[in-house]
Amino acid sequence: MEQQYTKIILKSGKEQSLLRFHPWVFSGAVKRAEGPLAEGDVVEVISHRGDFLGLGHYQVGSIMVRLFSFRPVVPDFAFWKVQLQKAWDLRHSLGLANNPETNVFRLVNGEGDGFPGLIIDFYNGVAVMQMHSLGMYCIRQELAAALKEILGDRLLAVYDKSEKTLPFKADISPHDGYLLGEARQTEVSEYGLRFKVDWEARQKTGFFIDQRENRRLLQQYAAGRDVLNMFCYTGGFSFFALRGGARLVHSVDASARAIALTNENVTLNFADEARHQAFVADAADFLKNIKDQYDLIILDPPAFSKHRDTLGQALQAYKRLNARAFEQIRPGGLLFTFSCSQVVSKEKFREAVFSGAAIAGRSVRILHQLTQPADHPVNIYHPEGEYLKGLVLWVE
User: Which CATH architecture has domain 6-69?
Assistant: First the structure.
């Protein structure tokens, strides 16, 4: 018997974005629902003329439906396994699935892989899942089982880290924990550098995988430079700077736990490395009195805004932060500056950075415009998926 789903009927003219394969249905586009609705349910989206538009997960909020298919399908175990296999095959084609030099990568990147609301990061045998929608959370066990069938013995454990990422309106009480196997932490390799990762206690899924290629680029510029890595987290940029021949590297973070792991990872890669020092400090305070001490500065702050109603505040924060770095950096210095706020567009971020340069009165040239790596693919119909923005700037 064919599965019947509650129908979400759109207002006249509101189907255009879905006809262009954008995977979100906003609440303002909905005329009515025909049938019962519970958050996480699979629903069928229908135009005002009665045409099928897609299947997705219903949720409470401005984004009312996240579509996972634009054609009629049965979203059962077999369907999701096929989708996961496609994601794995892509990573294999990128040279990540069997690369001992780099065994940490993103396996599923939300809408970019046809899994709206789901992130899966792979850490040398451990898959860490993070759900941002109740629909994906409801099928987490099936997803874990499908991963095991695809990866076999390569998959040691699956950890669900969704406690803090699920919609706050969802009427559930999620708890982080293992869906399959168990592994307290592991050591991963990124271009031959080693890192200890603790997905249970750290931010995101345990490591900022999305900066991999940008870290390698920084290594090319580090030789002979005095490097400051602000918001260092566990020190990723610092280690590539050290390997690139930096004269000294200072790592700064407000978290004492992050600094402890940074020092641990430095020892893991470089033994007693005299060129490196780490500081527990507030970014604004640390950047006040470092005039001409550094000629390569990395600014990779946490997201200053996650919602459009705070966009203005976030842009001001980026302007102030970058202005301070421009004021302090040596002539001939390089600034690697980033935003990971999805609501901040590339254009708005660049305007904020340029405003910071104007405030500091420095002459600045763009050398590189950076984004996330290939294992964080962006659905061409969903530009919001390009969340990571970066600039490499030459400061005269």
Answer: Roll (2.30)
